Amino acid sequence: MNEFNELDEMYREVILDHYRSPRNNQPLLEPTKEIESNNPFCGDEIKLQLKIQNEIVTEIGISGRGCAISQASASLMGEALLEKNINDSLELYSSFRELLTGNLSEDQLDNLGDLLALEGVKKFPIRVKCALLSWSAFNDLIEV
Amino acid sequence: MNKNLDPKKIKNDFPIFERTINGYPLIYLDNAATTQKPQSVIDSLSSYYQYSNANVFRGVHTLSIEATDLYDEARKKVQQFIKAKHIEEIIYTRNTSESINLVAYSWALKNLKKGDKMFISPFEHHSNLVPWQQICRKVGAQLLYIPLNDSGTIDCEKFSTQIDKNTKLISVTHMSNVLGEISPIKDLTELAHRFGALIMVDGAQSVPHMSIDVQEMNCDFLAFSSHKMLGPTGIGVLYAKKEILESMDPFLFGGDMISEVTYEDAKWNDLPYKFEAGTPNIADAIATGIAIDYLQDIGMENVFNHEKSLVSYALEKFSSLENIDILGSQNPSLKGGVISFNHKFIHPHDLGTALDRHGIAIRTGHHCAMPLIRSFGLVAASRASFYIYNGNEDIDKLINSISEIEDYFKNE
To answer: I need a labelling partner for B385 at 20 to 30 A (CA). Which of A78, A94, B258, B288 fits?
Structure first.
């Protein structure tokens, strides 16, 4: 059906999969840093815990409640952050943000990996905030 | 279906229904947020600016006199619409929130003292909650919540054991914007007055949908917005009893609200102008009168009965969807035309986005009532709210679309 075609671009199979079975959803007992963040517009909530050693994220715990986009994006973010240098991840955040606002250059595209699954969200500007909720929480956690 | 109200015919008066949304005819089910506007209201706005625009109360020229007459006539229509005793009891504001703030700052700040109590219900819109949190904190008064019974509606009997002579104000929604439940205002008014307290009614969701008689209700204040009853945005009303308004100080200061100004001091104008500083929202006030004309032609009893029949039909249809939970009472006799619901596995925002692809507009989120939504253990909910141009076929389309979307999220 036609009305589902554009929806398909946003709700890709990989997104629905991450929504139904979120990765890294066990709480960490001794996180280095943790943050709770919410989107007051829709009430989506994310709790993000990181264990960081020598600037590398070694363990991650994510829990939350919200729409498919916010929760799948958090799960995908968790996979992207693991075993990576936090400064590289901050750069990834900036590329991801540009992906969703439609300003991404060709050479940045390669770095995004599985995060590209969320590209369809850019057709639904009101939902971009959903996809960025977990990432802006990560950004706040690192910048503070 | 009510023979006095034909939604298909009414739809023809609303130009917005000529457009499509994502290739589908618009099904508008977000009326608790704002309603659509009939052609007569839209025409009134352009006609005012095209033919009658001038400032009110100050010119001797023809246009100013015409504008003043139209503006006064509109206020008269508001007075008759809610059956207020005096025309000067009708104060124009920007919206319900501003009307409540006016009472909070001009009445409560002066009359609530340390140790006093005021009550609101647990299902207030933020606009009838946040101002009172602020005022009570400022003066050291206690903000308390009216108790509910097991079915989640206001428990007047229990409340009568909690209200006392230190209670100075009750402010309560007439109809919940989330649950659609109608509050027992007359009982609450009697209780308030028995203990010497005043009562404010948030009529944002009731005045557009039912016949209102403030003298019969005997409330002290009533607030509502024009844009939720076919009128333009940017204009609302505060009704208050004359003797109370007379005892209150102005909320905003400036032009039009004075009778005499010297370099040292000023005297306040008569009611209602004492509370209407600056050039008023003339065009929107006049258009509000035209919206009231439209509703009066249909008859508010007919409006109310039509929505009752829609909500009964919708509740029955919703009961066929096994993954939908209705928030609050499922008894249509307690409800106006608002239904909030939650899908067991589709988040409201995913549902709202998918329904929009079918041209169906519903509200999703916390509905400006975060504490209430949280009390259901949720962070968000979906809401369908009805008005005069909605028919059973709109509800059928909503229900069918929800089923299709369910399959989509299940199977993909």
So the answer is: B288
**Which residues from B are below 8 Å from A41, CB to CB?**
365
**Partner-chain contact B350 A68, CB within 8 Å:** yes
Q: Which of chain A's residues have a Cβ under 8 Å away from the Cβ of B380?
A: 42-44, 66
Query: Is residue B412 less than 8 Å (CB to CB) from chain A?
Result: yes
Nearest CA to CA, how far is A33 from chain B (Å)? 25
What interface predicted TM-score (ipTM) does this complex get?
A: 0.83
Phi, psi of A5 (to 5 degrees): -60, -50
Determine the distance in angstroms separating the CA of A40 from the nearest CA of chain B, rounded to an integer: 8
Q: What is the pLDDT along chain B (412 residues), one digit of tens a residue?
A: 556 799 999 999 999 999 999 999 999 999 999 999 999 999 999 999 999 999 998 778 999 999 999 999 999 999 999 999 999 999 999 999 999 999 999 999 999 999 999 999 999 999 999 999 999 999 999 999 999 998 889 999 999 999 999 999 999 999 999 999 999 999 999 999 999 999 999 999 999 999 999 999 999 999 999 999 999 999 999 999 999 999 999 999 998 899 999 999 999 999 999 999 999 999 999 999 999 999 999 999 999 999 999 999 999 999 999 999 999 888 888 899 999 999 998 999 999 999 999 999 999 988 888 888 888 888 889 999 999 999 999 999 999 999 999 988 875 4
Q: Read off the pTM.
A: 0.91
CB A49 within 8 A of CB A70: no
Question: Could A16 and B412 be called an inter-chain contact, meaning their C-beta atoms sit closer than 8 Å?
Answer: yes
Q: Does A7 touch chain B (CB under 8 A)?
A: yes
**Cβ contact (<8 Å) for B370 and A43?**
yes
A-proximal residues of B, 349-408, CB under 8 Å: 349-350, 353-354, 357-358, 364-366, 370, 373, 378-380, 404, 408
Asked about B368 being catalytic, the answer comes back as yes
Return the residue of B nearest to A66 by Cα: B347
Please report residues of A whose CB lies closer than 8 A to that of B358: 3
The per-residue DSSP string of B336-349 comes to -SEEEEEESSS-HH
Alpha helix segments (H runs only) across A1-144: 2-10, 13-20, 68-81, 86-101, 106-109, 128-143
**DSSP-derived secondary structure letter, B239:** E
Q: Is A44 on the interface with B (CB under 8 A)?
A: yes
Residue A143 CB-density burial (10 A; 0-12 exposed, 13-18 middle, 19+ buried): exposed
Cα–Cα dist B389/B373, whole Å = 28
Tokens of A56: 């590398």
The tally of CA atoms less than 13 A away on the side-chain side of residue B59 is 15
Residues contacting residue B6 through CB under 8 Å, at least 6 positions apart:
none
- Residue A13 touches chain B, beta carbons under 8 Å: yes
Cβ distance A66 to B347 less than 8 Å, yes or no, reads yes
**Could you tell me the domains of chain A?**
2-143 (3.90.1010.10)
Domains of chain B: 7-30+300-411 (3.90.1150.10), 42-296 (3.40.640.10)
